[in-house]
Design goal:
This protein has one domain: Alkaline Phosphatase, subunit A, CATH 3.40.720. Helix content is 41%, strand content 15%. The chain has an 8-stranded mixed beta sheet with strand order 1-3-8-7-2-6-4-5, with helices on both faces. The chain is globular, with a radius of gyration of 22 Å. The N terminus is likely disordered.
């Protein structure tokens, strides 16, 4: 009799577990929270302390010119070499910077050193005009790396291969001989490691011409970060380092791009802590005092709900921290 009772109780527990799993699978993601309004978004953005406003946000393409000018400008007295790093936060909304962990933040470290904290925009034109290109990963990063919008570089969405009619800074800085080498570090296959990847042709071009340009895809964000630190610590590290961290984008797609989402906030803090480690590694270089470093933290796009690519202010606004 006791054996039958145990079997019956076990069966009930199994059924309960199955029901709980089904409820979890069918649960609405946090992104369904209706509190993510434009009004709240604007309030949160205003609390960050940006040097400009939404209506005066700079185009993300301007970062191309910032990087290009850095390498082409004369060296300051006492400096012997130009270096630059872009730490990209994929899918990171501009309002989430109000949640910075001041004790463990790459962004905070840069602003303490005098970095500019700027609002920028993706999508071809500023909000509220209707965007002229998707607020998606490939178009956003390509616009930063080429200095032009999709009507020129041709990357109107993901899974489109850019032609060599428009080269990225990774290649042009080396070919123009203002940088000795460059490297691209990421975990997403869509950049250069699958059919129709964005930079597939450019990677092949660099390999064919024996250019010191490397394209490195890592297994996950932790591996991307470890690779970045390893690169920075090399005595002859690449002059231009371009790394993309994905926690905010992955979390956003999983359960919501939202200031109100605790998991999205945690993802932001994870990659911001990565950035701090990278910045500290740069400052710890034995040759740091003789190097002229440009350090940028930026995003390709924002997000709303569990996606991005369209025209909402939450998707359109990005940011740039420039030191």
């Amino acid at each position: 009799m006791k054996k039958k009772i145990i079997i019956a109780v076990t069966a009930v527990l199994v059924i309960a577990a199955v029901i709980a799993a089904a409820v979890t699978l069918n649960a609405k993601p946090f992104a369904k929270d209706k509190a993510d309004t434009e009004e709240l978004y604007r309030q949160n953005v205003a609390s960050v302390g940006y040097e400009n406003a939404i209506d005066t946000a700079m185009p993300q393409t301007e970062l191309y010119n910032t990087i290009k000018y850095h390498f082409e400008a004369p060296l300051e007295e006492g400096k012997t070499e130009k270096k630059a790093i872009v730490l990209g936060y994929d899918g990171c909304r501009a309002d989430i910077l109000a949640e910075i962990d001041e004790a463990n933040s790459g962004i905070k470290a840069l602003t303490k050193d005098g970095a500019k904290l700027l609002l920028s925009y993706c999508g071809g034109v500023n909000y509220p005009e209707k965007n002229t290109q998707d607020t998606s990963t490939a178009p956003g990063w390509c616009s930063i790396l080429t200095g032009v919008w999709a009507d020129v570089h041709g990357i109107t969405g993901n899974d489109i291969t850019k032609t060599m009619d428009t080269k990225t800074l990774l290649t042009s800085l080396v070919e123009d001989k203002v940088a000795d080498s460059s490297t691209f570090i990421t975990r997403w296959k869509g950049h250069f490691d699958r059919k129709n990847a964005t930079y597939l042709e450019e990677k092949a071009y660099c390999e064919k011409n024996n250019l010191p340009v490397s394209f490195n895809r890592c297994e996950n964000d932790a591996a991307s970060h470890a690779y970045t630190l390893e690169e920075i610590k090399k005595a002859d590290c690449a002059d231009f380092i371009f790394v993309i961290y994905e926690p905010t984008d992955g979390t956003g797609h999983d359960n919501g791009f939202s200031f109100n989402n605790p998991e999205y906030k945690a993802a932001f803090k994870t990659q911001d802590a990565y950035a701090l480690e990278a910045i500290n590694a740069i400052k710890a270089r034995p040759t740091y005092e003789n190097e002229d470093w440009l350090i940028i933290i930026t995003a390709d796009h924002g997000g709303i709900g569990t996606g991005h690519g369209k025209e909402s202010i939450q998707e359109r606004m990005t940011f740039a921290v420039v030191l």
